[in-house]
Amino acid sequence: MKIAQITPLYEAVPPKLYGGTERVVAWLSDALVDAGHDVTLFASADAQTRATLVPVRDQAIRLDPALLKSDLAAHMAMLHEVRRRMDEFDVLHFHVDMIHFPFFEDCAERTLTTLHGRLDLKDLPGVYRRWHQFPLASISLDQRKPLRTANWIGCVHHGLPRDLCRFNDAPDGDYLAFLGRISPEKRVDRAIAIARRVGMPLKIAAKIDPGDKAYFEREIEPLLQGGDVEYIGEINDRQKPAFLGNARALLFPIDWPEPFGIVMIEAMACGTPVVAWHRGSVPEVLEDGVTGRIVDNEDDAVKAVHDVLAYDRRAVRAVFERRFTDEAMASRYLDLYAQLVRAREPDLGLRLA
After folding, report:
1. Domain formed by 176-323, architecture
2. Which mean pLDDT values do the consecutive 10-residue runs of the chain (353 residues) have?
3. Gene3D superfamilies from the xrefs (predicted)?
4. pTM given for the model
């Protein structure tokens, strides 16, 4: 099958540091190539991919040192190139929210749009009613709740390469981990409180966006005093296996409807159990009592940390292998691509092999 992957241009593919959507697109593109499909990736020129790369910008927007730049202009230029070449592909798989809808509304049946972000935002319901013809994929069932009547054709949980985060059955660290972004909804303050009540050190590997800098300085930085909490900043994919694999548990104390939470499956790949709040997609990702514990308050989280320290890390890894590899993700997307092609052109069935 000939498949176009259209990614946001904010981060490299995959991101050099923090970043979710572009990372998933990188994993998916490579897995589809490995499965024998003809994949073309529309992305910035710094992408690292086994797909055929169409560079539509010289570098990812976040890495561009230019002070004045237009993300809208960059994405419009990319969409123009996709539109120009769309007849080359069986499916156009968009990962850019809804920005492409006005440009492709006359051929929506050729597209699949995966929505990667939160959907409980003002103005979104009107967009998905106006362009209801676009087939949509969610990254969790919980993500759909604000837009239950949108044109959902499937749900595909994220997956990552099975050898990206190495399994570690004998962690040599005696610490808890927090990995992600420092912002009010991620609740690193909860993680700090839990670790201190448990009596274990906490290591924090996290990005601070410019918009969250004041929050960090006001609310979080004062909590870092003392030797039991270490803030190490952003880390890349090469550093994650050691950081997560040597942790006794990952704390995921979110306070928002997280659509997926890649860090949970990265930890599971290492065999590291997760203690997470009952929000968003968490109940879909974690198997309570096997890969971690799902909690509703700080007291329960403290008890849960003590529980998961005794978990079988091989069982945690086994769930990852069964549910959250890039091969599993690619297989589920291929089912959706085939569904779209069959509905549009039944005579092209032989091209799907």
Report:
1. 3-Layer(aba) Sandwich (3.40)
2. 97 86 97 98 97 97 90 97 97 98 97 96 96 98 96 98 93 94 96 97 94 95 92 91 97 96 97 98 98 98 97 98 98 97 68 44
3. Glycogen Phosphorylase B
4. 0.93
